Amino acid sequence: MTNQEKLTAEPLAGLGFGIVAYIDMLWTLILVFLLFSILLIPTLISFRDGSGYKAIGQRLSSYEVGTIGNMGYSSVQCTGMPLEIGSINLFCPFGAIGELYDYGVNLSDQTATNCANNDAIESCRPDSLQFTTAMDSAVGQSSYLYEFGTYTNLYLTPDTKAACSNPTNSRLFVQYTCVQTAESLQIKYN
What we know:
- The chain is of the alpha+beta class.
- The chain has helices at residues 3-9, 17-39, 41-48, 58-64, 129-138, 182-189, and strands at residues 74-82, 87-91, 96-106, 143-147, 171-179.
- The protein folds into two domains: 3-69, no CATH class; 73-189, Rhamnose-binding lectin domain (RBL) (Jelly Rolls, Sandwich), CATH 2.60.120.
- 33% of the residues lie in helices and 21% in strands.
- The strands form two sheets. It has a three-stranded antiparallel sheet, with helices on one face. It has a two-stranded antiparallel sheet with strand order 2-4.
């Protein structure tokens, strides 16, 4: 192929290798970013299902509904306390307690950091009306101190739950979410 044929096939070739390489790199980047955009379509659809921007005006939210901010702002917290203390404090570093995910009594030091109910501790799950009422009362508050006294206040039939109370090892845990209020989200978005 002669130089004249190369220039006819690629008009920029006469400007030198640097310009040709630059144009090739631009086309490569265009194709790569197009591919990444296509791969992110399911993520954008997922973010569209959120409701974090529902409190702001429709005109503004149309720009933001496909972003991660649309999922709102929340976190999952877990608090555990030995039964011998007789109280547990549910606390949110921001916002308020949104929803209780799980609770139970871990029976040993090996499971002290467990924050989800499982078959091993299912029989020691608190079931008293006092406990469930207290947990329902915690929702919507930024901090909630529940004083249960002794382990017997956690169960409907405490005499059958004596195995759940090892004063030095048993720990009551509560897993919950912390969410920002609609008012604070509105201020943040504005």
